[in-house]
């Protein structure tokens, strides 16, 4: 998408749609004052009539206006200036981008405020807009003849005149972030028939070549050689062979610490022999969202050339019910020697992550974050929009939570008390792969902790926010790209 900065006053910006942000209460001065004059006082009248309030993510379209260069105007509310955060700004700008991307070949322009709005500076605003135009103009309807949304023909990020703030680096960064989020969404939205472990690995290789990431793909014999038998057990029931993808960005040099990002990549989760009912299985193409989030973030980390060392690990399997499928009661010996008793083949994500986490530790990870659509229990606990965070190291978790806050993604820490270990203690093997119904998100996390040695580690259960069941004005249904921004932010601050 062609995204560039414009210099003109808001009244002079040429576009099919000019998006103008207004905060609450609406103040008609500066560029907005000039616009009001050009319109003969229409903006003030809208405000008086109570139509233009500036409430967060509210939109007021004006079609076929005269007196300015743009054909149409969309006012979008930012809410109260002192309450504006990255998350609220994204919500407003993506709402606007979604509202004006319903036609082909639209030339969009987004006006950047003349000064900071609350804590958000003009460059931050420009970066958010450059991301939003891409996120908001891509739908999940990728196979429909008649699409609901269309990419913009061009985008102008219209910076205020007379203020020589250089927005180009911010726009470049926002463009990369938006592309990364859309890459993750695309991978998750594509059906499991296409995104098999091999299909995913092929996409990862192409992305890596494009972004300048080192990429390695482990096939089944290599995974056997690496003793990743817990992960391999899950793959047994499918004719699709498993893969592990490793992508590496070495921006920090040999002596700098290594951040490992680990993603659950179950390309379809039928539940295995502990088969899911139709309703629960319906959206299980999304069960590779952790891996897709890692790949999306890695693509941005490489393209931003961040001065850090980051390695992404993606464990890719399909969980099916074939004749060779792993069974209840099976005992699996994981890469690190821990024996696992299989009580439920639908608790497969932790079996995949167990070996991939062990591998990351053995490969020299200094700090680890894993992302997984791991448990329905986490969705019950926190709802659909919030991920659960679990850790063995509070300082590291605080860094991850801080990155999420800056990124505007909601994340909430849950406890990791030892008392939960009782629930997953094995009768025949060391541990069981489920701890029963109660505290299911936490027992899953306690299970994973057995595979990270003592490395600082944060587990993010993204079962809720990774995939949305319905459209909202501020986001398309289907894959959301949740987590990509937080990981990029984390890498930006990694020392
Ligand atoms: N992939 C699912 C978790 C999930 C649920 C992701 C809803 C996205 C939305 C996971 O593999 C699973 O099936 N978990 C089980 C664990 C149970 C068997 C211990 C669950 O949550 O029911
Ligand atoms: Mn499952
Ligand atoms: Zn799963």
Cα radius of gyration in angstroms: 24 Å
Please tell me the overall pLDDT.
97
Task: Give the assembly state of these chains.
Answer: single chain
The proportion of residues in beta strands is 15-25%
Q: What is the first-to-last residue Cα distance?
A: 33 Å
The small-molecule ligands in this entry are: ligand BES, manganese (II) ion, zinc ion
**Strand element count:** 19
Widest β-sheet, arrangement of strands: 7-8-10-9-13-17-14-15
Tally of helical segments = 16
- Please mark out the parts with pLDDT under 50 across 5 or more consecutive residues, or reply none: none
Please give the largest β-sheet: 8 strands, mixed
Going by helix content, strand content and strand pairing, the class is: alpha/beta
Categorize the overall geometry.
elongated
What is the share of helical residues?
25-40%
Which features does this protein show?
eight-stranded mixed beta sheet, single chain, binds manganese (II) ion, 16 helices, alpha/beta, 495 residues, binds ligand BES, binds zinc ion
Report what the structure shows.
With 495 residues, the protein is an alpha/beta fold. 35% of the residues lie in helices and 21% in strands. The protein contains 16 helices and 19 strands. It has helices spanning 30-38, 42-48, 86-99, 122-136, 168-189, 197-211, 220-225, 229-235, 278-281, 289-303, 349-362, 376-382, 394-407, 421-424, 440-449, 484-492; strands spanning 3-6, 17-24, 59-62, 72-80, 107-111, 154-158, 214-218, 243-250, 258-269, 309-319, 331-333, 339-341, 367-372, 387-391, 411-413, 431-432, 457-461, 467-468, 478-479. The strands form four sheets. Strands 7-8-10-9-13-17-14-15 form an eight-stranded mixed beta sheet, sandwiched between helices. β5, α4 and β6 form a beta-alpha-beta unit. α4 (122-136) packs parallel to α5, α5 (168-189) runs antiparallel to α10 and α10 (289-303) crosses α16. The longest helix has 22 residues, at 168-189. The radius of gyration is 24 Å and the shape is elongated. The structure holds ligand BES, manganese (II) ion and zinc ion (ZN).
